[in-house]
């Protein structure tokens, strides 16, 4: 492998002016913490699987949702963005926020990157767990590699309305409609409202299964290019609201290009670390990468439903450093480049890097 290519999972990708993956990040690809037996991320994935298997049955009494947890994190830029109707100029495509192998391949920034291919393969209900990569500042709840679980559920006209009184007369689509904050132009209001209700009920049941009935959650309206309407769910953790998932009614255009234009559906993507932090009382997201026995052994339970409350371990006393430096005029300095340099030297021992102040001499 020469300097003009990068190797990921045994495959060489030619580099170009977009290449920005670092050896530190590549070192995490293939770790698959979510597939490591008794790792807290595996535990929470198993709990979510068990819940969906037992709560949702197909017609033959078989589990409705299939589970996929072995899809490669190397995806095309097309999968990660275009397939989800994310416009070519959308800020989420920035080099500064993503890990590109080159102009056409990247490490997936979310598990939604696989929505279209799995719908195209004919699936109507699936869960998908995987590692995702985003260039970000590192602190106790942010790390450039984390794990998501995606869920998708499609409905035919009959499936969505069969439980509703007079449902035979309702229809998923309506001609000549307008896009409003409530719905997409092609959907009937009944279809959207029912989908939204099913989606929120599904997620509330899941969260209640995970945390018990005492958990406080709230819904926040938001925007994603691939769902409308869209919502975020926040969970109260240590007195603060923490965003744990994004979801919404799938854009009909996405379903049409995925060969499922006659159905409607919802999708969600949840952060496994965030949920595990709340569930097991893990105070810092970096601990998930720990190889320390004192961390790992706390999660070796016989039954995945068994409660675990993490007992913190401290290794080093805290130390603060202030650094100031001059930037030449017109310098194309990127904050994330500096953070990555600090990380490449200090590793996960660096608890936090923050910009305290900026000053430009008049
Ligand atoms: N992919 C979105 C994210 O990572 C979450 C999401 C998934 C939103 C599915 C809507 C539907 O933020």
From TrEMBL:
Annotated Aminoacyl-transfer RNA synthetases class-II family profile domain residues: 42-312
Keyword Ligase among record annotations: yes
UniProt-listed InterPro entries: aa-tRNA-synth_II (IPR006195), aa-tRNA-synth_II/BPL/LPL (IPR045864), Fdx_antiC-bd (IPR005121), Fdx_antiC-bd_sf (IPR036690), Phenylalanyl-tRNA_Synthase (IPR002319)
Places the protein is found: Mitochondrion matrix
Pfam families in alphabetical order: tRNA-synt_2d
Alphabetized UniProt keyword annotations: Aminoacyl-tRNA synthetase, ATP-binding, Ligase, Mitochondrion, Nucleotide-binding, Protein biosynthesis, Transit peptide
Protein name (record): phenylalanine--tRNA ligase
The organism of origin for this protein: Pagothenia borchgrevinki
């Amino acid at each position: 492998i020469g300097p003009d290519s990068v190797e990921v999972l045994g495959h060489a990708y030619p580099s170009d002016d977009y290449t920005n993956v670092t050896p530190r990040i590549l070192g995490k690809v293939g770790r698959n913490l979510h597939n490591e037996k008794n790792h807290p991320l595996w535990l929470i994935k198993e709990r979510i699987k068990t819940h969906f298997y037992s709560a949702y049955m197909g017609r033959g009494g078989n589990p409705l949702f299939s589970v996929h947890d072995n899809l490669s994190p190397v995806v095309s830029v097309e999968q990660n963005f275009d397939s989800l109707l994310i416009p070519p100029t959308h800020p989420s495509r920035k080099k500064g926020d993503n890990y590109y192998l080159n102009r056409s391949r990247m490490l997936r920034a979310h598990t939604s990157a696989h929505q279209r291919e799995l719908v195209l393969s004919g699936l109507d209900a699936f869960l998908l767990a995987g590692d995702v990569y985003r260039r970000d500042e590192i602190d106790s709840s942010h790390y450039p590699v984390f794990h998501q679980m995606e869920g998708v559920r499609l409905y035919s006209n009959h499936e969505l309305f069969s439980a509703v009184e007079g449902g035979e007369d309702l229809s998923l689509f309506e001609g000549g409609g307008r896009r409003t904050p409530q719905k997409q132009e092609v959907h009937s209001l009944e279809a959207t409202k029912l989908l939204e209700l099913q989606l929120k009920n599904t997620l509330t049941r899941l969260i209640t299964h995970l945390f018990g009935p005492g958990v406080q959650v709230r819904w926040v309206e938001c925007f994603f290019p691939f769902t409308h309407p869209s919502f975020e769910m926040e969970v109260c953790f240590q007195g603060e609201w923490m965003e744990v998932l994004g979801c919404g009614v799938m854009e009909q255009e996405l379903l049409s290009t995925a060969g499922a234009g006659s159905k409607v559906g919802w999708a969600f993507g949840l952060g496994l670390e965030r949920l595990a932090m709340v569930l097991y009382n893990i105070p810092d997201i970096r601990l998930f990468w720990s190889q320390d026995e004192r961390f790992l052994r706390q999660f070796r339970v016989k039954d995945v439903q068994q409660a675990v409350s993490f007992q913190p371990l401290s290794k080093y006393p805290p130390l603060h450093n202030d650094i100031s430096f001059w930037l030449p005029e017109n310098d194309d300095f990127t904050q994330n480049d500096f953070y990555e340099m600090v990380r490449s030297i200090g590793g996960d021992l660096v608890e936090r890097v923050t910009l305290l102040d900026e000053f430009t001499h008049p």
